Structures are given as structure tokens and as C-alpha cells.
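Onboarding guide, step 5: your first structure request.
Type a short instruction followed by the sequence, for example:

Predict the 3D structure of this protein.
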Amino acid sequence: MKTLLAKSLEQSMDYQTYRELIDALMAEGKTTGNHQSAAMEHYTKMNVQRMRRLDKTTKLNESLLSRLKTLDKKYIWLVITEAWCGDAAQILPILHAISKQHEHIKLSLLLRDEHLTLMDAYLTDGSRSIPKLIAIDAESGEEIGTWGPRPADAHQLVLDYKADSNRPSYMEFSKTLQLWYAKDRGVSIQSELLEKLNEWEEVVLSV
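The system replies with C-alpha cells like these:
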């Protein structure tokens, strides 16, 4: 796994490069990934708007900011994503905001459909769900934990949707999911990542 992570990191990109890639593809009427369609293009267009808004409005809470100031070890947050993913559009700007607060956290991004070997090593309930954050100890190159594809409450909404035999179309459900993110305002994401920072530090210190 360490070798796979190292090779994946060599092919990863930073957040700004990811955003520029999406913009360039959108100019051609395309998106990332293996599946090109009007629906995927529509999702991507909406996600660009969401990321632009969140890039400007995301504010980290004081608990998380205080915790970031105490980080001693260096970490790489390798995230598997795609431009059309609505969850990723809500989550990546927050991860980027966190990484900007402390030089000890480096955010690196990979496109899922171009790295299926890595993706298949980090399935969620057997599914290639994204975004998936893989936390890596920058010094050793070892994985120390994962997070994603979404906050627990949002993930429960998805599970309930999949279990509903009378469920609406995914496009309709995606509106419900995006409304949850809008109401939550990133609180759950930050809270869960704060817990993970504490958990991951214990893992690093125990090695």
C-alpha cells in the first residue's frame, strides 16, 4: 500500500490545478471522469458555482483553528475526487481552507476514474464513493487513516435513499443532499475532521 500511495502522490495535483482543470474542461463542454453526458456536465457546472462560493465564504471554527496551531507532525491529505461529484464540491473547499491554515497539512487531489487501483483499495461499503480522504504521515509515507465520502449525517441520508424502494430520481435526491450541506454550513465536516486530527496524531505518535 505504501508503494501505491507514493506512486499516486507523484501523479496528484493541488487544489488550484484541480480548479483550473475543471474550468478548462467546462469551456469544452466536458467534465472529468469516464462518463461524459449532459447530466454530468450539469452537475459539474453547479459544482463550480458551489466551490467558488465556498472558496469565498468558508470560515473555520475556533476549535479547529486552535487544534491546527498545535500540529507538530506533517501530513498529506490525499483526496480521491471528480468534478461532477456534489459531495466533493461541498467538501474540497473546506479541506483547502484547512490546508491553508497550516503548512503541516498538504492537500493533494487525484481523479477517481484515472486511479481505480487506489480507489478500489478504499471502497465504502463496496462502492467507489467519493470524495475519499487518505491521511498520510509525510515523514514515513504510511497511511494513518481515512475520512469520507461525506459527513455521517449526510451519509445516512444517502443510505436511506438507497434503501427506499420508492425513491425519487437521483437528480431529485441530490437537491435534498445539497440542501443538507447548505443548512449545515460545514459544521459537521469540521467537527469530524477535528476528531480525526486527534485520532491520527495518536496513530503517528504510537509508531
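Each response can be followed by summary notes, for example: The longest strand covers residues 75-81.
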